[in-house]
Structure formats: structure tokens, C-alpha cells
From TrEMBL:
Signal peptide: none annotated. Pfam families: TPT. This is Sugar phosphate transporter domain-containing protein. It comes from Lactuca sativa (Garden lettuce). The lineage of its organism: Eukaryota, Viridiplantae, Streptophyta, Embryophyta, Tracheophyta. It is a multi-pass membrane protein. Keywords: Chloroplast, Membrane, Plastid, Transit peptide, Transmembrane, Transmembrane helix, Transport. One of its GO terms (molecular function) is phosphoenolpyruvate:phosphate antiporter activity. SUPFAM superfamilies: Multidrug resistance efflux transporter EmrE. InterPro entries: EmrE-like (IPR037185), Sugar_P_trans_dom (IPR004853), Tpt_PEP_transl (IPR004696), TPT_transporter (IPR050186).
Amino acid sequence: MLHGAVTCSGSVSLSGRRNHSSFYRYDHISLPFHSESSIAFYSTGRLSPSLCCSHSSWKPGGWILSRSPVIKRESSDVFEVKATSVPDDADESDAAAVAKSKMAETLVLGLLFGVWYLFNIYFNIYNKQVLEVFPNPVTLTAVQLAVGTTIIFLTWALNLHKWPNISRTQLVAILPLAVMHTLGNFSTNMSLGKVSVSFTHTIKAMEPFFTVILSTMFLGEIPTAWVMSSLVPIVGGVILASLTEVSFNWPGFWSAMASNLANQSRNVLSKKVMVQKEEPLDNITLFSIITIMSFFLFTPVALLVEGVKFTPSYLQSAGLNLKHVYIRSLLASICFHAYQQVAYMILQRVSPVTHSVGNCVKRVVVIVSSIFFFRTPVSFINSIGTGIALAGVFLYSQVKRIKPKTA
């Protein structure tokens, strides 16, 4: 019986990444085999130094090549093993897929912001047109809540959004939110019926002022010096704009201020009274429940305060165009519900700070578009005041992310 050894020497070049390679050498690897021959191995390619050899009288089982080799016979006893090079583009394809996904997400988010602004613009335009000929904000608010409730039930019935699984405890917790939501919408309609759209939204720029006060009173959140300083241009700008507003009147001013108070109270209460032990509701479901509860809360009040004034007979007796009032009221109601729902959809995708900045830009877009559409006379001082107030809102949204230093 003959005993021999396989003696391997050579070099293998390995590279794991581009522009980076490692060079390994191996010498004098001896393996016993039953033959008088010797086998020399040479490896080339970007592979691990695992080799598979075969000989007529030797069949080791532990050597496995990770890639398919191309074997070239040089002589009767010498083989050259060359590994085929396979391009490794998995990482590149994954990176391309991630980039495409991010681009698609950015496009969807941009589309949502555009739809949010567009619905808000048309809501204010249609709403103002109706209030100019039908100055009944209580009835109009009830109509908008009724249309929103109808849309919500349709989305649930058509399985566009799942039916909510809500408990009695959660309904009790949401009730104060619905009350504030109702008062905020009614106050906004009241203000839009009394003053110009641009002035209403200039006053509503004071929302951060009420947020800071209510959060301090009910949540114990002490504002930073940066937050307090950002309120100065907001308040100063609103005062400057109010002093030079052509359509200024106190009912319209205080209605817009009441809207600020109600809407920010709703936001603060949502942090304070929402039940944490129950399964949390997503933003769209929460908005839907609030809208339905607001409708059932406010409709009896509207009937008691203004009576039934949205019937064809009443509108005709008042000399109004039925088609004009009904179509614009319906469009305003649809836009009202749609822009709020899209706002909640955006809030699920971005941070509160980004959403606040988007809301600030939305207010600018609404003010500018309403001035051009209704040809609202605006003085130079009025525009300066509005600009200062909106700049303060933007500053507030930025400094909110600055956390106070802890001792």
C-alpha cells in the first residue's frame, strides 16, 4: 500500500467589498492519500479559499467549493481550479428598492399635503359664499356635521375603514373632546360669517398662545424661554393686523378667539382624559367618533336656537337660490370633513412638529388665496401684521423641539 500526501501551495485573493481586498497565502498543506501522484491546486477569483479536488484514487468529502468551479486539466496529475466570478449586486438592488420606496412615500406625503391645502381653501371659499347669503352659522354647522357623519358611516359600510371596537369607557372619555370640537367648528363659522376669511385665519394664528396657557394650567407643562419669546410676534402681529382690518368687528374677533380656545382645549383634553388602559384608537377613528358625537350633541341645539331653516320653502321665502345654497353647502361640508381627515392621515406619517409647520404653511395659503378670490382690501400695515403673526407661529413650531436643560 502506498501512502502519499497532497501538498498545496498558492495564493487566494479575497475581497468582500469594492476597492478593498485581502490577500491570503497558504503553504504546505499535506493530506494523506493512497497514490503515488501529487496534485497541485491554484485558485483565482474573489472567493473563499475552499477547494474541491477529485482524483482517480482519492475522494475526500470535506472540501466543498462555495461557487461552481471551472476545472482545467493541465497534465495527468495536475489540475487548475478556476472559480467563476459572479457579480454580487444584491446590496445594490436592495438599496435601489429602498430608494424607490422612500421616493414613493415622499410623493404620497406631498400629495396629501397638497390635498389638505386644496380642501381647506375650497372649504373656506364655499363656506363664506353660503354665509354671505345664509347668515345662520348654527344651522350650517349642524349641516356640516351631518354630512361628515354620513360620509363616515358610508366608509364603514363599504369597508373603506374598519368598524371601530369602542367601549363605553372610551365614549365617556371622548365626550368632552366632542364638545370642544363642536364649539370650535361653530365659532369658526360664526367668525367667517362676520369678518373676512383672511382676518379669521390671522386671529386663528394665536392657537399656540392658548396651547401654552392651557398646557400650563391643566398639564403642568412649564414653557421654555424660547417658547415664550415666540409668542411675542404672534400676539403683536395679530394686534397690528386687527387695528388695520377693514372688516373688523368684535363678534367676529371674539368668535375666532373662542375657536382657538375650544380647539386647543380639545387638544389638551385629549392628552389628559384619554383612557390608556383600553386599546388605543387610531387618529382617523378618533376623529370619526368625535364627529358623530358632535352631530348628535349639536343638532338639538341648532333646532332650538335657529329652528328648521334649511328647508326649500324657507330658503325660497328668503329669496335665495336653492341650487346655489344647497350645492355650495354640500361642497363646503365635504371639504370640511375631507381636509380634517387628511390632516389626521398626515399626522400618522409625520412628527407633530412637521405637522405644525405644515399647518402654518396651510394658513398662509388660505389667507393669500382668500384675499385674491374675494378681492379683500388689505393695507400695508395689515399685511405686515399678518406676516409677523405667521412668522411667530413658524418660530413656535421650531422652538417646541428644543428640550429644557435638566439640572
